[in-house]
Amino acid sequence: IEIRATNSTSAEALLLSLRNNTSLSKLSLVLNGQMEIPSTVTMINSLKELVINGGIANSSRELKLPADLAKLTTLEILRVHYCGLTSMLVALKIKQLRVLDLSNNY
After folding, report:
1. Does residue 99 have a pLDDT over 80?
2. CA–CA separation, 96 and 106 (whole Å)
3. Which residue in 84, 14, 24, 93 sits closest to 52, CA to CA?
4. What is the pLDDT of residue 60?
């Protein structure tokens, strides 16, 4: 499923409605320049792949990842693009993570 977040409230509400969906294994978030990932993404326990596109290429702003991202205990693939990331320490806490793709973060 792909979610294009036009504002944080609509994204939060949609993600909240998906939290009990046990068959959702891949989620793609297109944040359109928002600087925060909705914290409700960490409630979707079935995720194996999370793709985040911040839409802020060549920006000095940095996307903030939820500190409790490690709650996604089934997450194996994390791709974070165009988010201006300079640090990804929270990803090191995800024990099942096999693929970490941070391409196109300037």
Report:
1. yes
2. 26
3. 84
4. 62
